[in-house]
Amino acid sequence: MKRITKLQEIERQVEEEGKQWKRKRTEELIKQLAEDSGEFSPPAPAAPDEEAVHNSEDHDAQRGDRDRDGIGH
Fold first, then answer.
1. d(CA 41, CA 9)
2. 15 versus 63: which is more confidently predicted?
3. Stretch 46-65: mean pLDDT, rounded?
4. Residues 6 or more apart in contact with residue 73 via CB below 8 angstroms
5. Cα separations in angstroms, 29 against 21, 22, 26, 34
6. Domain map of the chain by residue range?
7. Which of 12, 38, 41, 71 is paired with 31 by a 20 to 30 Å CA distance?
């Protein structure tokens, strides 16, 4: 069994504290950026593309035909 030295324990503790500080600081900076720019995060999703909706409807209709014919699942 490998023994952890006091120095290794201190190093791990400091690294963990550094990670926590980094996360907190990043949150603060992102929040400040959002407040300064007036933007919201995440941005609202874009409206669906008409062609993509049409293609999806065609695919659903084709799948329905296969289901009625007993082909598919």
1. 38
2. 15
3. 70
4. 67
5. 12, 11, 5, 9
6. 6-69
7. 12
